[in-house]
């Protein structure tokens, strides 16, 4: 992690401190730890007005010092457990109330903290970092754009290597290797490769299914750059596909194009979802069962949700996906997805991979 990235993280910390009402906070969710401190290892953060500490074990002491400049690093041991360190820091900060991530900690972890911090009120953090993370700054957007470039180029590069008679797993391997070769730190999430009848499964797990002539193959994947993720889906054909599958593809592409034309700062998420959903439902009622999209950043599913029940007004700095799909059991399916960035001037589509029907 560069020193510059550390400074960006400190800006995030300042915004978080401005929202704190409790005396201190314990942060355990990995994405929030990285967002607030720049540290990408295991452990937790203790944050108060005057104390900013990474709490971790021997394996990550040096990494924490490099990645979170300006933060104190507290080492845990078998005798000095994390909860004991939290108590020491709470006393040093004079904390009578501490934010904790009740939506992330296990019940057992919460009980241990409660027992260790007797007399100190544990207050739900209530998603404050996740709310702050919705609006990306210039550095974050730069990372997402690079992750998007890598994913788009990887898709383009593997097209000559995709062929009928290969398996879904082999297609996944080609794609993930190519993203690594282009500079990805790893897959943004478990890559989906769903061919033939498996295409009706929105989150299909790649299998030994052998891709045949006449199949559609849906690839849903993303790259990682400096911790930030991208999300893209492309569906390709192997040889000539049936008129039924061609009609599905054309519908999904039309729905995605219409939604991309409608999306922008000042628009409500639910209204953008409706554009694509109404078009698909008119032809394939009930075949588009998931939201149109979601936020992307340090985690693959962030807020806001581009869905029928999310009235969030998009603002510059929001980064969301637009990913309509049609899924017909026994026949197959199709999804097309881009990661898009809201700006002061409109919208940037971070993906450059082609979306016309490719027949391999």
Write the CATH fold name of the largest domain: Creatine Amidinohydrolase
The first-to-last residue Cα distance is: 41 Å
How many E strands? Answer: 18
Per CATH, the superfamily of the largest domain is Creatinase/methionine aminopeptidase superfamily
Work out the oligomeric state of the chains in this entry. single chain
Q: What is the SS-derived class?
A: alpha+beta
For the biggest β-sheet, the strand order reads: 4-3-2-1-5-6
H and E order = HEHEEHEHEHEHHHEEEEEHHEEEEEEE
Described by strand count, sense and barrel closure, the largest sheet is: 6 strands, mixed
DSSP helix count? 10
Can you walk me through this structure?
By secondary structure, the protein is of the alpha+beta class. The chain has two domains: 130 residues, Creatinase/prolidase N-terminal domain (Creatine Amidinohydrolase, Chain A, domain 1); 212 residues, Alpha-Beta Complex (Creatine Amidinohydrolase), CATH 3.90.230. The protein is 36% helix and 21% strand. The strands form six sheets. Strands 4-3-2-1-5-6 form a six-stranded mixed β-sheet, sandwiched between helices. A three-stranded antiparallel β-sheet has the order 7-8-11, with helices on one face. It has a three-stranded antiparallel β-sheet with strand order 14-17-18. Helix 1 crosses helix 2, helix 7 packs across helix 8 and helix 9 packs antiparallel against helix 10. It starts with a helix and ends in an 11-residue tail after the last strand.
Overview in brief:
Helices cover 36% and strands 21% of the residues. The chain is built from ten helices and 18 strands.
